[in-house]
C-alpha cells in the first residue's frame, strides 16, 4: 500500500492570519485485496500530521475510489474545543480567562407548610386554623399529623471554566481544592453574599496549546447557589444562611407539635476562603469575547 499527498487541499486562516482549518487529500494505491476501509484510514492517519498550524486532525474519510486498488482519503483539521460547555476554541484561550455558565433547574422537594392557606367554613360555625400546615388532620399535640405535599423547587448552580498554566496546578493548589470542596464561601463571591455558594465539584481538562504555543489547562468549578433568608420567630426576624439548616424543637419531642418551644439553626458546612481558588473575577472579559467572535466569524 502506497500513500501520496495530492495537491487537492483547502486551508483557512483566522483574522490573525493563523491557520485554523484545513482539508488534505491523500491518494492510496496498491491496496491489497480484501483490505478493509478501517485499515486504509488507519494507515493514512499514521502518515498524515496530527497537527497543522493550530488545528488538530479531527476526521479521516474515504471520498472517492478511482480504481479497484486505489482510493482518495480526505483528512480534516480543525481547532480543538473544550467539551462543548463553553463552545470556545482552545486556540483563543489565554491564562486567566474565565467563562461563567448558569445551570438552573427544578427538583422535587417535600414541604409541610404553605406560604398561606385560604380557609372556608361549610355548614360549620368555624373552620379549624391549620396555621398553613398542608393536609393537617385537625389534631393537636400527640394527635397532630400533616401529610405535606411534593412540589418542584428551584435549584440553582453556576459553572466556571477558568484557564490556567499547567504549572499553576501545583500540589499546594490541589490541597487548596481538597480543603475547599464541600464548603461555603466565607466572604462575598462572584456577586453572591457570604454563605450562599457551595463548591460542589472541580474537574481538570487535559493540557493543550493555544495559537502562541503556550501550554494551558482548563479547570471547571461547579457551584451550588442557595440565597440567604430569614425566619420569623416570636416576632423577631432570624437570619438563616443559604446552606444552613433551620429546624424546630417542640413539646415532648413531637416534631409536629404546633406549640414550638425552640427554634434552631444548624451549621452543617464549613466556610472557606474562595479567593484561594483564583476564580470569580467575572464573566469572560472583553479581550476573550473579541477573540471568540473572531473565531466564529471565520
Folded structure, characterized:
By secondary structure, the protein is mostly beta strands. The chain has helices spanning 37-47, 171-180, 286-297; strands at 2-13, 19-29, 51-52, 55-67, 70-78, 98-111, 149-164, 184-185, 197-204, 208-209, 215-225, 229-233, 236-240, 245-250, 260-266, 271-272. Strands 1-2-5-4-3 form a five-stranded antiparallel beta sheet. Strands 6, 7, 9, 10 and 11 form a five-stranded antiparallel beta sheet that branches. The chain has a two-stranded parallel sheet with strand order 8-16. A hairpin with a 2-residue loop joins strand 4 (55-67) and strand 5. The longest helix has 12 residues, at 286-297. The model is unreliable at 82-87 and 250-258 (pLDDT under 50).
> Overall pLDDT, averaged?
82
Order of helices and strands: EEHEEEEEHEEEEEEEEEH
Radius of gyration: 30 Å
Low-confidence stretches: 82-87, 250-258
The shape, in one word, is elongated
Number of helices in the DSSP assignment = 3
Annotate the secondary structure layout.
Layout: E1 2-13, E2 19-29, H1 37-47, E3 51-52, E4 55-67, E5 70-78, E6 98-111, E7 149-164, H2 171-180, E8 184-185, E9 197-204, E10 208-209, E11 215-225, E12 229-233, E13 236-240, E14 245-250, E15 260-266, E16 271-272, H3 286-297
Parallel strand pairs: 8-16
Antiparallel strand pairs: 1-2, 2-5, 3-4, 4-5, 6-7, 7-11, 9-11, 10-11, 12-13, 14-15
Amino acid at each position: 500500500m502506497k500513500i501520496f499527498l495530492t495537491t487537492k487541499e483547502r486551508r483557512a486562516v483566522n483574522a490573525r492570519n493563523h491557520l485554523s482549518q484545513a482539508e488534505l487529500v491523500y491518494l492510496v494505491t496498491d491496496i491489497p485485496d480484501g483490505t478493509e476501509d478501517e485499515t486504509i484510514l488507519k494507515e493514512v492517519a499514521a502518515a498524515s500530521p496530527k497537527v497543522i498550524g493550530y488545528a488538530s486532525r479531527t476526521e479521516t474519510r474515504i471520498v472517492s475510489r478511482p480504481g479497484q486498488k486505489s482510493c482518495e482519503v480526505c483528512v480534516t483539521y480543525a481547532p480543538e474545543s473544550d467539551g462543548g460547555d463553553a463552545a470556545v476554541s482552545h486556540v483563543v484561550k489565554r491564562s486567566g480567562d474565565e467563562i461563567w455558565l448558569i445551570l438552573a433547574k427544578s427538583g422535587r422537594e417535600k414541604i409541610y407548610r404553605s406560604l398561606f392557606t385560604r380557609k372556608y367554613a361549610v355548614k360549620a360555625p368555624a373552620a379549624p386554623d391549620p396555621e398553613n400546615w398542608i393536609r393537617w388532620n385537625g389534631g393537636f399535640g400527640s394527635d397532630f399529623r400533616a401529610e405535606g405535599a411534593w412540589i418542584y423547587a428551584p435549584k440553582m448552580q453556576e459553572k466556571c471554566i477558568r484557564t490556567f498554566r499547567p504549572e499553576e496546578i501545583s500540589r499546594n493548589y490541589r490541597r487548596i481544592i481538597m480543603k475547599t470542596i464541600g464548603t461555603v464561601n466565607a466572604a462575598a463571591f462572584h456577586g453572591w453574599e457570604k454563605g450562599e455558594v457551595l463548591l460542589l465539584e472541580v474537574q481538570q481538562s487535559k493540557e493543550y496549546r493555544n495559537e502562541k504555543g503556550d501550554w494551558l489547562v482548563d479547570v471547571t468549578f461547579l457551584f451550588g447557589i442557595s440565597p440567604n433568608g430569614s425566619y420569623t420567630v416570636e416576632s423577631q426576624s432570624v437570619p438563616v444562611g443559604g446552606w444552613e439548616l433551620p429546624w424546630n424543637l417542640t413539646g415532648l419531642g413531637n416534631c409536629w407539635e404546633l406549640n414550638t418551644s425552640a427554634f434552631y439553626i444548624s451549621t452543617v458546612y464549613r466556610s472557606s476562603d474562595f479567593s484561594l481558588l483564583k476564580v470569580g473575577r467575572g464573566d469572560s472579559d472583553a479581550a476573550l469575547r473579541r477573540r471568540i467572535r473572531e473565531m466564529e466569524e471565520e
